[in-house]
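Following up on my earlier thread - several people asked me to post the actual chain instead of describing it. Fair enough. Here it is, all 387 residues.
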Amino acid sequence: MSLKNCYNFEDFRNLAKKKLPSPIFHYIDGGADDEITLKRNTNSFDDCDLVPNILASVGKPDLSTTLFGRKIDMPIFLSPAAMQRLYHSDGDKASARAAEKFGTFYSMSSMSNNSIEEISNISSGPKLFQLYVHKDKSITDDLIDRSRRSGFDAMCLTVDTLVAGNREKDHRTGFTTPPKLTLQSLASFAMRPSWVFNYLTGKKFELSNVKKKTDKGTNIAKSVIEYINEQYDPLMGWKDAEYCAKKWNGPFALKGVMSVEDAKRAIDIGCTAIMISNHGGRQLDGSRSPFDQVKAISDAVGDKLEIILDGGVRRGTHVLKAIAAGAKACSFGKMFLFSLAAGGQQGVEHLLQNMRDEINRNMVLMGCKNLKELNSSKLIYRISQKI
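Reply from S.P.:
Thanks for posting it. Predicted structure:
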C-alpha cells in the first residue's frame, strides 16, 4: 500500500503498522485496560443519524469557523500528541507545517521533541500549547511564559492525567522514552531498518521543552507511565487550573472535561473553551465517550464556552454529527499520528485533504451552506441520551 491509496483511518493505520516498530505502533494504537472506551469513542457516533435537506442550492459550503480567537478554514485540528519524532524524523515540524497549509491549529504537547521556539520559527499558523501541571511548578511556569513569548495563540491544560492509565500494550512491548531495545522488541526494530536508520541519524531524541529541568525521558529512559507518575502533580486541583488560566491570560481550555458540572466550573475559573476528551480512551476505561457527552454539555454551557470534541473522529460525517450536537470543532490524535508515520508532512496533508473533502461533500449532501446550519434539527438519536 502507498500513501496515495490511503483513503481512511484503517488505510493510514495499516501503512503506519508496516513502518513502525511494534512498541511505537502500539503506543499510538492502544488504550487503557480492556480498551472498551477506546472503541466506544468511535462507535458512539453510530447512535444517531444525520437528517439532510434537499434542493438547498448549497454550491460551495463555507467550512470556516473561529476558534480561540483565530479564524480557521475547517472545523478540525490536530490534537496535542507527545514524542512525534518517534513516528517520523520530522516530528512536530511536519505536523505544524501541514496544519498551517490547511489553515487550522497545530497543537504542541509538553512532551514534544521540538521546542516551543523551534515551532514558532517555522510556522505562523494557529498554534495551541498543551500544558500539564508538574510537581516542579517552575516547569509549568516556564512553559506558559515561553509559549506566550513565542506567539502561541491559545493554551489547553490537560486535566485527566493525574496518574497514568493502565496501558497494557505498553507493558507488553516495553515501550519507553527514549526507546530502548529489549529482548521482546529486538526483532520488531530489526525488521524496520528504515525507521532505525532515520532514528539513529536524525536529531537526538529529547523532550525538548523540559530537558533543562529534568533528564527523565531524554537521557534517562522511562516508560510513559513512569514519566507521568513521576513528573505530573497528582494533587492538581481547581486552584491550580485557575492559576494557569490567569497566568496565561488568553484563550484557555481545559482538556479532559467530561461532565456538565465540570464544564460549568470551567467558566468560573476563566476558561474560554473546553475539550471534551477522555485522552483517547487511554486513561479511565469504562468512561463515556466525548460524543456521548457533547449534547448535554452544549445545552448547559454552549453559549458561554467554545466546545471542542476530542477523540474518536474517523470520518467527515463524525465531524458533522459533533457540530450538530453542539461542538464548535473537533480534534483528533491517533488518526493524524498514523498519517504522520505513513508519510511525514505529506501524510498529514493527505489526511487533512481527505477530511476536508469528506466534510465538504457531506455538507452539500446535507443541504448546509455553512456550519451554523448544522444544528440539532439535523440529528436524530436512535436511543435516548441518558446522562
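The chain has 15 helices and twelve strands. That should answer part of your original question.
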